[in-house]
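As a warm-up, study this chain.
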Amino acid sequence: MSAKRGVKVNEYLQSVSNPAVYAGGDAAATDGMPLTPVAGYDGKVIAANVLTGNHVKAEYDAIPTVVFTIPPLASVGMAEGTAKKNGFRFRTNHMEIGGWYSSRRVGERTAAFKVLVEEGSERILGAHLLGPAAEETINLFALAMRKAITASDLKQVLFAYPTHASDVQYMA
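Now compare it with the structure written out below.
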């Protein structure tokens, strides 16, 4: 694995060698992915810490990514192999869903999901979506992961139907 590139920073995105310097986005050696929203997030963390003192820590968990293909492919959190390697006990919910109404109504028959749910806590460890509106639906999983909304909680939400968001309760 290659070394992180950029300014070495602490959890407040402050340079470890020069406390007068803060760095974010592609300029910082962090665990944040090289994505535009991550750079924007880093900017907010830096601004808060420069203006009011170091009190906001950068957190890079549950950042969704999307491959804008047809159909789109989206992911957030851990892959199954990573969850196993890290010793998590979890169930894997997965299914091809091209026959579901949400996919059929837009004429896209290529669709599937895989969601990893931790046993006991019902915490969502990862979500991986392929199909129409995956680029939007993945944000619901990112929100759930970031705000500790469990799979059980998601199953209780009444979403507008027939939307791709309404499929989430069956994926969790």
